[in-house]
Amino acid sequence: MTLSAAVVELAAYARDLTKVYGSGPNAVHALAGVDLEIARGSFTAVMGPSGSGKSTLMHCLAGLDRVTTGHVYIGDSDITTLPDRDLTRLRRDRIGFIFQAFNLLPTMTGLQNIVLPLELAGRRVDLAAVHVITDSLGITDRLGHLPSQLSGGEQQRVAVARALVSEPDLIFADEPTGALDTRTGRALLEYLAHASSSLGHTIVMVTHDPIAAAYAERAIILSDGRIVQDIPHPTSQDALAALNDADVA
Ligand SMILES: Nc1ncnc2c1ncn2[C@@H]1O[C@H](COP(=O)(O)OP(=O)(O)OP(=O)(O)O)[C@@H](O)[C@H]1O
Ligand SMILES: [Mg+2]
């Protein structure tokens, strides 16, 4: 193999990223200089103590929040300099986001929530394809209900299906198993691992669960807005030990 063939294709990368909330004595340095490369088709877990900057990092990588300084590239596009309209289109076409707080629209049923990104993009809704995803998540029979009529775990799975249905290149998932029981959580993690290894999607997942991190092929650990560890092929023991180190630090 030549050297150039070994160069990893990147789905996204960040350079010297900082994010400061507020100003003066109240300023919070949520990201304090993050450099990160996400290989195409990879499955990365993001871990770290509460408040270490995980959600902020995900929002900045996905173009949902503007960075304070530094750059984020999705493919070849520097999204930190992209005009809002272009950024909105890039997000819609290429990025799926599973929010920590689900963010479902309360007046729409599960199914309407799931197909909304397709409809906004003017794309055809293939119900059979939607059902492949909702079957694998075990929510097909709940799709006619409003979010308020669904359990927390069911709402979470609707949010997962909504992020997957447009087959985005890049999927960001902020604690996607946080509201799920062990069995449903494992099924979702297996689906995400399969989506990366067999379907070629790139997945970045925040999790507090070392067992969930072991489904990923890489774990990065954040502490006080910085990456303090980058672990290839983490076992749950590796992830737990790294989390304990970050907590102590
Ligand atoms: N909109 C905001 N305004 C001010 N500070 C914020 C805002 N959003 C987040 N922060 C602060 O930035 C820091 C990082 O927050 P972030 O939500 O990224 O943490 P996290 O690692 O996702 O934590 P958790 O595990 O609790 O979800 C925290 O100190 C938080 O209080
Ligand atoms: Mg968070």
Description:
The protein is an alpha/beta fold and 249 residues long. It has a single domain, classed as P-loop containing nucleotide triphosphate hydrolases (Rossmann fold, 3-Layer(aba) Sandwich), CATH 3.40.50. 37% of the residues lie in helices and 26% in strands. The chain has nine helices and ten strands. The strands form two sheets. A six-stranded mixed sheet has the order 6-7-8-3-9-10, with helices on both faces. Helix 7 (182-197) links the parallel strand 7 (170-174) and strand 8 (202-206). Helix 4 (110-120) runs parallel beside helix 6 and helix 5 packs across helix 6. The longest helix is centred in the C-terminal third of the chain and has 16 residues, at 182-197. The chain is globular. Residues 1-6 have low confidence and may be disordered. Magnesium ion (MG) is lined by residues 54-55, 100, 174. The site of adenosine-5'-triphosphate has 13 residues, from strand 2 and helix 2.
Write the layout of secondary structure elements.
Layout: H1 3-6, E1 10-21, E2 28-39, E3 43-47, H2 54-61, E4 69-74, E5 77-78, H3 84-94, E6 95-98, H4 110-120, H5 127-137, H6 152-164, E7 170-174, H7 182-197, E8 202-206, H8 210-213, E9 218-223, E10 226-232, H9 236-248
Parallel strand pairs: 3-8, 3-9, 6-7, 7-8
Antiparallel strand pairs: 1-2, 1-4, 4-5, 9-10
Helix pairs in contact: 4-6, 5-6
Adenosine-5'-triphosphate is lined by residues 21-22, 28, 30, 48, 50-56, 100.
